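Same chain as my last thread, 225 residues:
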Amino acid sequence: MFPLRFDVRGTPVEVRVETLLNAGYAGRSQDDVAAHVAELAELGVPAPTRTPCLYPVAPYLAMQTDEVPAQHGRTSGEAEWALVVAGPREEDVLLTAACDHTDRALEVHGVAWSKQAGPDVLGRRAWRLVDVADRVDAITLTARAGGRVIQRGTLGELLTPAYWLDELRDRGLLRTGTVLLSGTIPMDAEVDQFADSWRVELGDPATGDVIDCEYAVRRLPEPVA
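reply #2:
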């Protein structure tokens, strides 16, 4: 597996991913969770038996890429933040932008399966979590599908990084090489999620700094079968 490389305030940090986890239904507001469940229900995805959920996926799916290949036209991203455990110290935990690209056709058969069918795209820059922890709820989270804003909110709408660090610690997974994606916020149903490009931005209102990840979606040729 290729390591991920992050620019952290001008310092390069390299991480080889050993454990990759996707949180789901992780809104702090139960209204937002219900809205996301409803979005997925429109695509035929059954409601979970508990929330939040945590889906382990193959570590090689954590990528920093400009292009995501797709086998058909019903795949789409989700605006998320990602925790990256880059070392043993508290200051080694990084926060970056992420987009969980999911196969919506497969999702109706199993959310965990659908997570294995597309990559988790991460930004190439990151903040140290300790540097933004005191204002993390105010950090903005925005997604554009095909150039149109489809998701917009703040990290205050999702379970906190501190919550997930405690979960990782309790499960023995708070170790170098673990990457966790946060789950997402509701989408604007008026915007086509099955777009040819996705961009996710984390914005820090206190500094004006923005971390992003962006990629094009490329349809693969039809199978010969």
